[in-house]
Design goal:
About 5% of the residues have low confidence. The chain has a five-stranded parallel β-sheet with strand order 2-1-3-4-5, sandwiched between helices. It is built from seven helices and five strands. It is globular and about 45 Å long. With 174 residues, the chain is α/β, with parallel strands linked by helices. The N and C termini lie far apart (33 Å). Helix 1 crosses helix 2, helix 3 crosses helix 4 and helix 6 packs across helix 7. Helices cover 49% and strands 15% of the residues.
């Protein structure tokens, strides 16, 4: 729909403008494939690749590096990760270790991915400390069920009311 198109255009534009070489590569999980395909049609795109991170080991880094190399990515290329938390973490790690480190743009499509990466911007959980903060975090609220979005709204409201101690507690839990 129009929401997917607008998000795809905005994310592609942000990635293209931030990239030192004007290019970006997109990785996604199966659920995010329609959005990733739409992003990959924008100028500067170097394709979209579906990644299965179930039962992931560090071998995924080699697979992602092979795709980046095949698509002509450099350390100046932005790597877009679109999907659930495990995919975002795997792509961030691979990007950080690729040719001295490539920047990432994260598109969270689950409540867990949105909260983990929003509350803990460096996303230490499930990722290495070698990863740089992402260029940005976009939350695809349309992909998150309404009941979960209500919970996210409550979490943000409570965090704003409670302040730093509440955020520290959330960070500890993550």
């Amino acid at each position: 729909g129009d929401g997917v198109n607008l998000m795809a255009v905005a994310c592609a534009k942000a990635a293209r403008e931030a990239a030192g070489d004007g290019r970006f590569v997109t990785f996604c999980d199966t659920a995010a494939l329609p959005l990733a395909r739409r992003i990959a049609r924008e100028p500067g795109a170097a394709g979209a690749t579906v990644v299965d991170v179930r039962g992931t080991t560090l071998a995924i880094v080699d697979k992602l590096h092979a795709v980046l190399k095949r698509r002509g990515a450099t350390s100046k290329t932005i790597v877009v990760a679109c999907g659930a938390g495990a995919l975002l973490d795997a792509v961030r790690l691979a990007a950080a270790l690729y040719e001295g480190g490539a920047r990432t743009l994260l598109i969270a499509r689950t409540l867990g991915a949105a909260i983990d990466r929003g509350v803990d911007p460096i996303a230490r959980r499930g990722a290495s400390s070698v990863t740089a903060p992402p260029l940005g975090l976009v939350v695809d609220y349309a992909a998150i069920p309404q009941s979960a979005r209500d919970g996210l709204g409550t979490l943000v409201r409570d965090a704003l009311i409670e302040g730093d101690e509440f955020f520290d507690g959330l960070e500890t839990l993550s």
